[in-house]
Amino acid sequence: MKILLIYLSVLVGCLGLAVLASKSFTTTPCWCWSRDQGMVVKPKPHPVSNEYVSYGSYGSESDWSNPERIIPLDYDQAQGKRIFYQQCVWCHADTTPAGPSNRSNVTPAPPLMNDGAVLNGESDASLQKIIALGGSAVGKSAMMPPYGTSLTQDEINDLIAYMRVIAVPEYHRPSGKVNGTWRSKPS
Ligand code: HEC
Fold first, then answer.
1. Is the minimum distance from the CB of 118 to ligand 1 under 6 angstroms?
2. Which of 16, 35, 43, 78 is the most exposed place for a label (fewest CB within 10 A)?
3. 38 pLDDT exceeds 80?
4. Strand (E) or helix (H) holding 11
5. How many angstroms separate the CA atoms of 144 and 86, rounded?
6. Element (H, E) at 67
7. Is the CB of 160 under 6 A from ligand 1?
8. Which residues contact 137 (CB under 8 A, 6 or more apart)?
9. pLDDT at 182
10. Cβ of residue 144 lying under 6 Å from some atom of ligand 1
11. What predicted TM-score, i.e. pTM, was given to this entire model?
12. Pocket of ligand 1 contains residue 143 by CB under 6 Å
C-alpha cells in the first residue's frame, strides 16, 4: 500500500513537472538561451540556387558574362546545351561554366555562342544552314565545320534554341512561333 502511494505521488509529481515545463517552454524556450536560439521555428532562407530555378524545367545555364544570373532551360534548350558542350564549346566559348576552350587558337575567331550582337541578327534558317553545311557553304570560313551529317535537324534546332536563350544582349523573336521552329518532340 505504501509503495502504491509513493508510486502515485511520484507519478503525479512527474506529470506536474511535465505540465509546468511545457507551459514555460511555450513562453521561454529555455532558461539559459535567448528566444531565437531555442525552439522557435524560423522560415528557412530560400537562396536563389541552380536547383531552385531549375525546378520544373529541364536544367539551367548561368549567363556566361554574369554567373549570378541563372537561365532556366526548357527541354529543347537543355538538349542544345548538351550538344553544345559536346561539339561546339571548343571553338565557340572562352570560359564557360563548364570550363576553358581552344577558341583563342582559332582564326578567324569564332563568335561566342552567347554573342547576341552577332547571332541575334541571323535568322533561324541561316543558322540552320551554316551549322548543317559549314562555313564554306555560306561564304564564311571553312574553319566552321559542317554538322549536317552528324547532327539531326532537331538537334541543330535545339542548338539554335540554346544559343537564343543564352544570348547577351537578349534575343527577341520576330514572329510569335515558339522557338521559331516547328519540330517533333521525341515521344
Ligand atoms: C573548329 C572550330 C569550330 C567548331 C568546333 C564549331 N565552330 Fe562554329 N564557327 C567557327 C568559326 C571559325 C566561325 C566563323 C566563320 C567566319 O566568320 O568566317 C564559326 C561560325 C559559326 C556560326 C556563324 C556565326 C555568324 O557569324 O553568324 C555559327 C552559328 C556557328 N559557328 C555555330 C556552331 C555550332 C552550333 C557548332 C557546334 C555544333 C560549331 N559552330 C562548332 C568554328 C567552329
1. yes
2. 43
3. no
4. helix 2-27
5. 15
6. strand 66-73
7. no
8. 129, 130, 146
9. 47
10. yes
11. 0.71
12. yes
Give the residue from 59, 77, 53 showing the smallest Cα distance to 164. 77
Q: Which residue has the higher pLDDT, 6 or 33?
A: 6
Distance from the CA of 144 to the center of ligand 1, in angstroms? 4
Question: Is the minimum distance from the CB of 80 to ligand 1 under 6 angstroms?
Answer: no
Most informative mutation of 91, 122, 151, 153 for ligand 1 (most atoms within 8 A of CB): 91
Q: Which numeric CATH code is attached to 50-173? A: 1.10.760.10
Q: At which residue does the C-alpha cell 554574369 appear?
A: 66
What are the pLDDT digits (tens) for 116-165?
999 999 999 999 999 999 999 999 999 999 999 999 999 999 999 999 99
Q: How confident is the model at residue 102 (pLDDT cuts 50, 70, 90)?
A: confident
Residue with CA nearest ligand 1 atom 31: 144
Report the C-alpha gap between 31 and 20 in whole angstroms: 13
Q: Is the CB of 116 under 6 A from ligand 1?
A: no
- What integer best gives the mean pLDDT of the chain? 81
pLDDT, tens digit, for every residue of 57-97? 688 998 988 888 999 999 999 999 999 999 999 999 987 66
Which DSSP string corresponds to 78-130? HHHHHHIIIIIHHHH-SSBTTB--SGGG-SSPPPPTTBHHHHTTS-HHHHHHH
Structural domain spans, the chain: 2-37, 50-173
